Amino acid sequence: MDRAKIAVLAAAFSGLALQGQVQNRPQDWMTWDGSQIAVVRSGEARKLVLESPGHEGSGAKVLEGPEGTTLLEYKDHAAWASVRDVRHGTPAMYLYRSLDFKTWEVNATYSGDQGRARSIHHLDGKRYLLVSNPRFFTLGKRMSPYAIAEINEKGYLAITELVDLGLREPLVKASVSPGKAEASGEFNSKYIALLAMVLTTSPLRYPGGLALVARRPGYIWLLDDRTGAVTRCVKVFPGVSEEKLGPPHELEWGLLGCQPRPDGHLLIASREEAAVLTGMEAHPRNKHLSQLDNEHQQRVNVAQDQASISHWPTVLWWDLDPVSGKVTPEPAPQNVPHELLDLRSFQDFRFRFDIRGNLLVN
Question: For 106-139, what is each residue's pLDDT tens digit?
């Protein structure tokens, strides 16, 4: 199997992963920088908003990403943009930096010869975290969606190690065919509940680290922002063991959102664990790609989605301390819905903080 087929395999697995599950909308990306917050609103991937005391709302600073931007973020008092090579159509990915929040300069370049990147994240020092598209990163005979790279003597980012999520089996199965130097790979179907994280989710930044959030099973990997190494894996739902991340188990969508708090902790909103573990069995659905044109099945799916929400409407809130890894339940914030009223309220649920630390929901 050659590497060109990986994207096709990923699309097929995506259809399986969507079978029977309903998802809520992507969250706004945000992070804290002292008394400032940086926000990239959902649906506005090329616009970074920087709010500070006295400069919020229409008075906030706004920075547009360069052409080809796939991701914007903020770190170390600077804006960062992952940018595709749209002019020449090569697999190269550039990391741009803006120190003055006005102009951009290239900080690092990844040629794409060890797998395709969809984003680059600056770590402390000379190291960078790479996040792949479906053509995963290769190092020797191993493959992964996440890699650590350093700038080599030619001035390009070169992968030095793959990020180990600590699973019992590799997240990507790699093999080398006779007569071929490159490894080829496919996503490990035993971890199909993690596929949405791998293909679509961007790392969340908090002081001292990054978080890879798998919202379907409620797994959160915390990474050191100096080395990119995984410091711990946190399970919001203790009953969702590693064995339940793939067939024959089907998990309902678990996390409604996760955002960094002003104190460096993470605030998490979720559904009930019982909904995650038993929702698909109690209210069966079929959302395989083959059913997209089946109008009757689509009506059944919507009715069963709604039935699941009605069965388990409660919104739970949690505090995650990244240092200890402890997840603590906490009361629902004031003036925030305690329950999901219907399917639309689930799909539209999102939250973030404003510059004063107040919670904004939807």
Answer: 999 999 999 999 999 999 878 999 999 888 999 9
Measured distance CA(256)–CA(241) in Å, rounded: 20
Question: What's the whole-model pTM score?
Answer: 0.91
Instruction: Return the pLDDT at 11.
Output: 43
Phi, psi torsion values for 276, nearest 5 degrees: -65, -45
Rounded Cα distance, 51 and 33, in Å: 10
Distance CA 92, CA 239 (A): 41
CB 163 within 8 A of CB 143: no
DSSP states along 49-62: EEEBTTB-GGGSEE
The helix (H) or strand (E) run that includes residue 83 is strand 78-84
Rounded CA-CA distance 338/317 in Å is 9
DSSP conformation class of 26? P
d(CA 147, CA 116): 11
Give how far Cα 74 sits from Cα of 99, 181, 203, Å: 10, 38, 12
Alpha-carbon distance of 354 to 186, in angstroms, equals: 41
